Amino acid sequence: MKKLVILSGAGMSAESGLGTFRDQGGLWDQYKIEDVATPEAWEKDPGRVTDFYNMRRKECYAATPNQGHEEIAKLEKYYDVTVVTQNIDDLHERAGSTDVLHLHGEINKVKSAGPNAEKKYYQQNAWEVKMGEKCPEGYQLRPHVVWFGEAVPMLEKAARIIEKADLLVVVGTSLNVYPAAGLVDYVPSKADCYIIDPSEVTVPRKFDVIREKATTGLKKLSETLIRALD
Ligand code: OAD
Fold first, then answer.
1. Among this protein's residues, is 104 annotated catalytic?
2. DSSP labels for 13-80?
3. Which end of the chain is more exposed for a tag (fewer CB within 10 A), N or C?
4. Which domains does the chain have, with CATH numbers?
């Protein structure tokens, strides 16, 4: 089976009702990154950071996968698919994708705000984490997400996967945030590359551009990719 890598971003989940970051009216129009998504924000006001991610978790739990997530999951019958996502929601998994790597963490998990946090994370079933809720070691629980200024532990693994791609599909990301955006540089030169986005996105090499939303763009592309196997 050919290796198909999907690199997804917030636009992937937009049609499930989850807001993007940089579109007009997006999350970073409503909040300042430095207030809610950095280690310094946590130091200064952990309650505000907790509230912000509680809202993200609440929205995520109320959302359902869209047709785009489902098209990607269906492609596993035909291709060896890995999804590398910048999204913290679990909509790819809920649609049925079995190999999903989260670059920026997962909102349905929490971890210790103490040392060695990466090794101590826990499933979070309720949408709300309260201040004062602690891990067994006695540290406040924080969301299992990557903040600006923090390392991206899954980056190397993602790069090794993209290096093996026969096809790369970039969907719903402005490719503004590094190091995630730099992953497209790892794709082999012979790989077929597609980008699905209703807006123009600057890409560093030749991509077939599908100027559509994730749902319709992925339906069309998936038909093309399945037909190509005949
Ligand atoms: P952005 O908000 O930067 O970009 C969203 C992209 O989705 C844009 O290119 C939109 O045009 C596109 N889009 C909007 N609606 C769409 C739809 N229905 N179908 C397909 N595409 C659509 O989001 P990301 O690129 O994911 O990181 O942002 C990257 C990172 O920045 C996030 O993971 C997050 C954020 O700050 C952290 O918090 C560390």
1. yes
2. GGGGT---SSSTT-HHHHS-HHHHSSHHHHHH-HHHHHHHHHHHHHHHHH----HHHHHHHHGGGTSE
3. C
4. 1-17+66-104+151-230 (3.40.50.1220), 19-62+107-145 (3.30.1600.10)
